Amino acid sequence: MSNSEIIELTSRYVMNTYSRFPIAIIRGEGRRVWDADGREYLDFTSGLAVCNLGHCHPAVVKALKDQAERLIHISNLYHIEPQAELARLLVEHSFADRVFFCNSGAEANEAAIKLVRKYFSLKGEERSRIITMEKSFHGRTFGALAATGQKKFQAGFEPLLEKFTYVPFNDIEALRNAVNEKTAAIMVEPIQGEGGVNVPSKGYLRGLKEAAEKAGALVIYDEIQVGLGRTGKLFAYEHEGVAPDIMTLAKGLAGGVAIGAMLATDAVASAFTPGSHASTFGGNPLATSAGMAALNAILKEGVLDNCRKSGEYLAGRLEALKKTFSFIKEVRGKGLIIGMELEVPGADIVKDCLSKGLLINCVGDKTLRFLPALTVTKEEIDEMTGILSEVLANPARK
Ligand SMILES: *Cc1c(COP(=O)(O)O)cnc(C)c1O
User: Fold this and answer.
1) N or C: which end of the chain has fewer CB within 10 A?
2) Mean pLDDT value of segment 123-130
3) Domains of the chain
4) What 3 state SS string does the chain have?
5) In the predicted model, is pLDDT for residue 396 greater than 80?
6) Is the predicted pLDDT of residue 108 greater than 90, yes or no?
7) According to the model, what pLDDT value does residue 398 have?
């Protein structure tokens, strides 16, 4: 089918929940994708921080092929080898002792919310309030939506799950004032993604953890977007060395395959017992084999090193553009999640980049977001900034 035939089918049969760009991507390899009419694009979105190793990484493809030939699905009534192995690998490389698997980011956050409730219920403490941040994003299901501190996602879906309080991100004072003996947990993205790539000040996570501990509350990190190497460390919290009690993962965990995970310390995880929570597809052989392949590749192939180096190089190139174009307000980020805040709307810039063969996206109305694969090269970054600067230089922009 051609782009236009696929677009026509979509608009006729698929529920209208996305405003999509007018192309259909049908193939990908590394940092390149191709649309149904054969046009090539340089991809700086990576399926929104999902394809951290680029598209169709050979190790992930092989793991999927091998596993698909052996066993695609089996119930969690039985033990599942790649699930157990992936759990071990995650535990060995994080603060956590145990892992619960599900299928998406929102589901991982739902699991975290339920675990927190169960934990305090077993302790006989009446604590259910969870403090989250303004401009946060935690997903679209009811618990995750209530956790998301942005009205625009919640409007029309009230009444929401109760007992969430929002405080400004990166504001320790506001947090201290909000935390009390009714607080069950503080939930935070170590760097906010959808909220505009907001990087907190050094010491923020430490202050947050101290406030939680003082009140006897738990800390949940949502690393669904910034985990799995995106910031140049396997997990973003490692930059500050402050571990949470619970952490949620999804996007980049299985090299492009749907997966979610909720990790916790033994002390907290033990609140879940058989029957507490479940997921039919959670931790299935296909997704967890892909997860093993992807996580091993992130850990072994110099990927994190490349992410740090390429991240600095990309940030430098974007800073250079800021000197040329007065409507660029700020460049911020860590590793290979970088936002460029503009004083003008970003939608047209994203559209113009697309027509020149470059995929980027825009969060909020005015922040361009760059999420290339962690394996991106210097040449590809130069190619990207070349296209972007041409687009920014369009006289209509001023
Ligand atoms: C994408 C995202 C989610 C939601 O993940 P889904 O898989 O879309 O449910 C939650 N939290 C953060 C930080 C995210 O970036």
Assistant:
1) C
2) 96
3) 3-56+302-397 (3.90.1150.10), 58-300 (3.40.640.10)
4) CCHHHHHHHHHHHCCCCCCCCCCCEEEEEECEEEECCCCEEEECCHHHHCCCCCECCHHHHHHHHHHHHHCCCCCCCCCCHHHHHHHHHHHHCCCCCEEEEECCHHHHHHHHHHHHHHHHHHHCCCCCEEEEEECCCCCCCHHHHHHCECHHHHCCCCCCCCCEEEECCCCHHHHHHHCCCCEEEEEECCCECCCCCECCCCCHHHHHHHHHHHHCCEEEEECCCCCCCCCCCCCHHHHCCCCCCEEEECHHHHCCCCCEEEEECHHHHCCCCCCCCCCCCCCCHHHHHHHHHHHHHHHHCCHHHHHHHHHHHHHHHHHHHHHHCCCEEEEEEECCEEEEEECCCCHHHHHHHHHCCEECEEECCCEEEECCCCCCCHHHHHHHHHHHHHHHCCHHHC
5) no
6) yes
7) 62
CA of residue 362 to ligand 1 center, whole Å:
16
- Indicate if ligand 1 lies below 6 Å from the C-beta of 225: yes
Give, using CA atoms, the residue closest to atom 10 of ligand 1. 138
Q: Which active-site residues does the annotation give?
A: 137, 222, 251
Residue 53 CB less than 6 A away from ligand 1: no
Average pLDDT of the residues in 75-91: 98
pLDDT at 308: 98
pLDDT tens for 297-341 read: 999 879 999 999 999 999 999 999 999 999 999 999 999 999 999
Going by alpha carbons, the residue nearest to atom 5 of ligand 1 is 105
Closest ligand 1 atom to 189 CA: 13
For 130-159, the pLDDT digits (tens) are 999 999 999 999 999 999 999 999 999 999
Per-residue confidence (pLDDT) for residue 395, from 0 to 100: 77
Name the residue of 107, 140, 249, 251 whose CB sits within 8 Å of the most ligand 1 atoms, as the mutation to test its pocket: 251
199 CA to centre of ligand 1 in angstroms:
17
For ligand 1, the distance from its centroid to the CA atom of residue 107, given in whole angstroms, is 9
Nearest CA to ligand 1 atom 11: 138
Residue of the nearest CA to atom 15 in ligand 1?
Answer: 225
